[in-house]
Amino acid sequence: MAVAGLLAASPTSSAMPDRPAAADVSDGTLAAPDIPLSNVKAHLTQFQSIATANGGNRAHGRTGYKASLDYVKAKLDAAGFTTTVQQFTYSGSTGYNLIADWPGGDPNQVLMAGAHLDSVSSGAGINDNGSGSAAVLETALAVSRAQLQPTKHLRFAWWGAEELGLVGSRYYVNNLPSTDRARVSGYINLDMVGSPNPGYFVYDDDPAIEKVFKDWYAGIGVPTEIETEGDGRSDHASFKNVGIPVGGLFTGASRTKTSAQAAKWGGTSGHAFDRCYHSSCDTTTNINDTALDRNSDALAHAIWTLGTAEPLPPGESYENTTDVAIPDNAAAVTSALTVSGRTGNAPAALRVGVDIKHTWRGDLVVDLLAPDGTAYRLKNSSSSDSADNVITTYTVDASSETANGTWRLRVQDVAAQDTGYIDSWKLTF
Ligand code: DTR
Ligand code: CA
Ligand code: ZN
Ligand code: ZN
């Protein structure tokens, strides 16, 4: 049983920690949990209370916006996310973006999901866009509850000043170094996902993201339509403009639901999808629970599916299958691999496949040692990760290391009562 605390060191490499003991689906990804609608609605109640206590809105430059951000940030900090508040100035007021990184995953493949947190000044903005903000928040909290350890690095974002012209998200993208932009494998946007007379629209941008959503909705027997008014209309625009694959969900704003749409989705034809769009009546009464629930679950499905897919192509491997016992709460052990016949340095995406059989894997600290002794942290200990075994592939930027030589996997059990062994490990160049 793990009794030691967490090791302080943060991973020095692009660790892709082991996967939880969750259900695999047929394509090798992990099945997402159901997102509790009650949790999502509890966030909306908080946003409503915040608006009521702050002049009736949560708009950029008003106290209700920062109070909304503080609420979301506190939830994420408590759930183990690494949060960052990014400030900007617009129309004479300070604006704020909230970025939340889930530790681990491949930093060269960052999967993002976001929603604008600001409302218009005329109302509480519960559907626009408390709904998207709450769905993204609850999905992030579900990642924490599951202690998900996906192959990609997960990053969640809440944008400021969208209503004034996509200001916060544009500021984020414009200030993201080009090397970091290149690492963003996709951005998923949720803006108005609980409209009272809902349609089910999927952004028709990146085909892979679109397919994930359309397949999920098909799986629950709900037809979808391509979101046709979205281009440039919400926070995905800035990501799309720099070539980042984008996607998203939308339940409609002031446009009118047609009779054909009402026939497939229910609701009222000839009426707006959201008659309270940008109005003071956009309160907690302005939400369709089924739409909010479905879109929250659809987002979780996309994060789990896109976040845990095994992405990497085959390479040349070296493997050691000799078992090495790991003594309980004692000194580290190593297992060696000699690489020869290669030229130059190791790659920037050196794959380290590990298969460690060990109860309460949170006891374990795992490092890769390069031939010159340089240590790359693959996995930290965790006092809360009680699952068994570390069976995963980490990606390490080993481009500063010569490829040939003796590489070692170093494993230490830093807490009492659980034991195990290195079953096998391999390097793939
Ligand atoms: N601009 C968004 C509402 C909006 C209008 N059309 C779309 C299409 C896709 C996403 C969002 C929207 C706002 O008022 O926040
Ligand atoms: Ca749900
Ligand atoms: Zn709006
Ligand atoms: Zn919006």
Automatic annotation (TrEMBL):
GO biological process: proteolysis
Residues annotated as domain P/Homo B: 307-429
Species lineage: Bacteria, Bacillati, Actinomycetota, Actinomycetes, Kitasatosporales
Gene Ontology CC annotations of this record: extracellular region
Quaternary organization: Monomer.
Protein name, as recorded: P/Homo B domain-containing protein
Stretches the record annotates as Disordered: 1-27
Cofactor: Zn(2+)
InterPro entries: Galactose-bd-like_sf, M28_fam, M28_SGAP-like, P_dom, Peptidase_M28
Molecular function GO terms recorded: aminopeptidase activity; metal ion binding; metalloexopeptidase activity; serine-type endopeptidase activity
SUPFAM superfamilies assigned to the protein according to its UniProt record, in alphabetical order: Galactose-binding domain-like (SSF49785), Zn-dependent exopeptidases (SSF53187)
Main location: secreted
A Pfam family the protein falls into: Peptidase_M28
Family indicated by similarity: Belongs to the peptidase M28 family. M28A subfamily.
Keyword line: Calcium, Disulfide bond, Hydrolase, Metal-binding, Protease, Secreted, Signal, Zinc
Protein localization: Secreted
